[in-house]
Amino acid sequence: MADLKLDQLDPVVGLEVRLHGDRGLFEIIAVHPPNSITIPAGSENFSHQGAEGGRTVDLKRLRSDSHFFSPIQDVPWSNLQYVDDSEIWPVRHAIEWLKTNPDGRVYPDYIVDYEVEARDDHAGNPSIFVRFLVDPDYLYENGRASEERITALNEFTYQVQQVLLGLDLDRWTYVQAGQTRRALDVAS
Amino acid sequence: MSLAEELLEHARFLATLDPRITSQANIRRAISAAYYAVFHLLSAAVAEQVSPVFPAGLRECTQRALGHSQMVNVAKAFSQQGKSEAKGLPKGFVLPDPISQELASISNGFKELQEARHTADYDVLKRYNPGDELAQVLQAEKIFKDWNMEKGSNNVPVFLAAMIFGKEWIK
Questions:
Q1: Is residue A93 a contact partner of residue A15, using CB atoms and an 8 Å limit?
Q2: What ipTM describes this predicted complex?
Q3: Distance CA B35, CA B116 (A)
Q4: Which among A1, A4, A165, A188 is the top mutation candidate for probing chain B, defined by the most B β-carbons within 10 Å of its own β-carbon?
Q5: A134 near B129, Cβ under 8 Å?
Q6: φ and ψ of B162, to 5 deg
Q7: Residue B47 · residue B63 · CB < 8 Å
Q8: Which residues of B touch A2 (CB under 8 A)?
Q9: A57 with A27: CB under 8 angstroms?
Q10: How far is CA B30 from the centre of its chain?
Q11: Residue B157 vs residues A138, B68, B154: alpha-carbon distances, Å
């Protein structure tokens, strides 16, 4: 099973990015392989075509100071700026990559979201904490937490940990899981 | 039954209480006991490797010499499956075998459990859900199973020696 390396972190759908020279926030909605440039149709009034035939992405504007809201197509990868700080983005990127189920790895559908936080651990080691939020309905059977399902969850977090270790980040990494809050809990 | 096994059993007892009547204290103690079960499993193995049974008490004194921070540093160094080198070993020393999945899993689990134990014991802002602790207890149980498979491997003597001598190897 291939490991993911930092220099292999291709753009992936779902990542939030900024563009050089634009104050807005964008989400990647499509990734195009090299030499597959399409002609922008109905895009914003500036072109980001991949001039060198490299990898390009399509973007959707999330927050804007501008009145243009159409998708922007074929933006060269080199024009992207990752939103997260430098410690976090490789981790988010790796998780988004895992969501594509690469190399037969399965990203469980009961994980509804994840959080990434850069801070020191209890011993003062600069660390990155990844927390997968799991649908509580998945974890429980007849009112009790299912050991089988938690074991599967632990196995998944171990696999994520191995991917993150392969990135050779200069930080400790912790991969944890927790339940999403039920709507009732949030309201109370 | 060893102290490590007793602690693991205690952790499981606390983690499997009826979720309708369990408490934050039970959940926190379950996580803490899960960590200490693994801590004593590994520290007893270190003491067994480096100290004889006689004179009586010497091995136990040796076990007391182990420290959490050095142990977790070693765990971090052995946490990547397939690697043939580990940080903190004597210069030029190469592991006899690549790090196995079991040893990597033990190492990762120890690191995660130590952090979880610290949160459970000291972070009073943290609010646990019933069931949160079971993940840690199952992780500790897996470490015990993995340890049974791994303890005779070529890498384990290095792993255990590093836990007690690792700091001195840098000299």
A1: yes
A2: 0.91
A3: 8
A4: A165
A5: no
A6: -65, -30
A7: yes
A8: none
A9: no
A10: 15
A11: 40, 18, 7
CATH architecture of A89-187: 2-Layer Sandwich (3.30)
Q: How far is CA B23 from CA B12, B16, B135, in A?
A: 15, 12, 17
Taking each helix axis as running N to C, give the angle between helix B3-15 and helix B24-50, from 0 to 180 degrees, rounded to the nearest 10. Answer: 160
Give the separation between CA A124 and CA A126, rounded to whole angstroms.
Answer: 6
Spell out which residues of chain B touch residue A158, defining contact as CB-CB under 8 Å.
105, 108
Q: Which residues of A touch B131 (CB under 8 A)?
A: 136, 139-140, 145, 150, 179
Q: Which residue of B has its CA nearest to A150?
A: B135
- Comparing alpha-carbon positions, the chain A residue that sits nearest to B132 is A178
Summarised one tens digit per residue, pLDDT across range A96-112 is: 889 988 888 889 999 99
Please give the C-alpha separations between residue A95 and each of A91, B91, B122, B159, B161, in angstroms, as whole numbers: 6, 35, 30, 30, 35
- Cα distance from A150 to chain B (closest Cα, Å)? 6
Q: pLDDT tens digits for A135-162?
A: 988 888 888 889 999 999 999 999 999 9
Question: Residue A130 pairs with which residues in a beta bridge?
Answer: A116, A175
**Residue B11 is which amino acid?**
A
Domain spans of chain A, in order of start: 6-82, 89-187
Q: Which residue of B has its CA nearest to A139?
A: B131
Burial of B105 (0-12, 13-18, 19+ CB in 10 A): buried
Pick the most confident of A91-95, A124-128, A181-185: A124-128
Q: pLDDT at position A46, please?
A: 38
Contact call for A154 and B108, based on CB within 8 A: no
Q: Do A122 and B81 touch (CB under 8 A)?
A: no
Kindly list the domain boundaries of chain B, sorted by start residue: 3-170
